[in-house]
Design a protein that fits this description.
The chain is α/β, with parallel strands linked by helices and about 450 residues long. The protein folds into 2 domains: about 280 residues, 3-Layer(aba) Sandwich (Aminopeptidase), CATH 3.40.630.10; about 120 residues, Alpha-Beta Plaits (2-Layer Sandwich), CATH 3.30.70. The chain contains 13 helices and 18 strands. The strands form 5 sheets. A 6-stranded mixed sheet has the order 1-2-6-3-7-17, sandwiched between helices. Strands 9, 11, 13, 14 and 16 form a 5-stranded mixed sheet that branches. A hairpin with a 2-residue loop joins strand 4 and strand 5. Helix 1 crosses helix 13 and helix 4 packs across helix 13. The longest helix is centred in the first third of the chain and has 18 residues. The protein is globular, with a radius of gyration of 24 Å.
Amino acid sequence: MIFSRSEEQVEKFRQDEVAQHYFEVLRTLIAKKSIFAQQIGLQDVAAYLGEVFSSVGAEVTIDETYPAPFIIAEFKSPRPDAATIIFYNHYDTVPADDDQVWTDDPFKLTVRKGYMYGRGVDDDKGHITARLTAVRKYVRQFGSLPVNIIFMMEGAEESASKDLEKYLEKYRDRLLPADLLIWEQGSKNVLGQLEITGGNKGIVTFDLSVTSAEVDIHSRYGAVLESSAWYLLRAISSMRDNDGRILIEGLYDHVLEPSERELDLVDRYAIENSEDLRKLYGLRLPALQPERRAFLKTYYFEPSLSIEGLSSGYQGQGVKTILPAEASAKMEIRLVPGLSPKLVFDLLQKHLWRHGFDRVKLTYTLGEESYRSDMSHPAVLKVIDLAKGLYKEGVSILPTTAGTGPMHTVYDILALPMLAFGIGNANSRDHGGDENVAIADYYTHIELIEELIKTYEP
């Protein structure tokens, strides 16, 4: 098989009238801020997407029952026995504030040296336009679809998919029966392989806070009085050992161990390792799991406890000798199958009480359950085979990722085979400055979706 070079893919993109049209749609989408965390632009972007899909014959529903509108856009096949593919996407993005460095305006789609840049170009607006391009190219060539295609798009994915479960329950009968759900996004790894994944970790986030006195106290009393900072640090230290294993009693009793197939897929395809991370991030502390097999098993299949931020006392110039009256921390536990956010939060509360840290105030902030697949369903294997024919460096098949998303929520209600793949690259910088996708990868994704549609032809 002769694979297309990146330059050839870029040229095909430039000469493709449909791709160019939806590139301009993407330009508009990038320019329209839609940030759930700041309650910016959600209704505006949902309405715009409704117009885009309605204009090409989709049956569109925009439900504004909750703060982030939910969009369903259906392209129906004339075949009465047609199968159904669902694309799950989201139109919200994380902010792009002054704490990030961007070469250009993050809300202006720019192109430099074969790459598109802009907030949401990979996560996740670019996937919407790429997949819609594939549908429109097929219809333009053949007149109608051999398969029903449903785009469902939410606007709160970056905020734990708030209210998604309610929307899915409401529209379950409209979305089903279906044969395959293609997840929001994915990327190529550093070897150029297309990663095809079937799950993600869950998460529970929480705040810890301690108030030790009505006011800060002079530190001359440090020998005889406890401070909020020390009390909080001791509480946090009780939750994890020096190797990263969580010490919350009973937590590991609920963990669903990976199957042999899941372990084999990770052993064969996963490329993450402690040495590469050391080089990538300039690590100055040793890895918790330096040995490869232990690293991969922990990374993909075990829970983790992390401190997102700590705050206490004086942080200004010079010295202020005090015992801080208040201390707080933002924390998270990444979850694996068998661990629900509520279960873990309850176990954590009991842990604090059992170890004498009853003065720590524990506040739940958000939670999502985890999901993973062994990637053996025939509909999933079909996509894998197609991708092997389009990506010169091949594919990497993983039953889960270490990131978090609402896969479990969707699976729990729709119970469909699901997989994720997309237009990103190993340095797409999602959530960071200069978020980007390669034009060649964008166009190859369009071709892959087209080829998938063709497999449903009679």
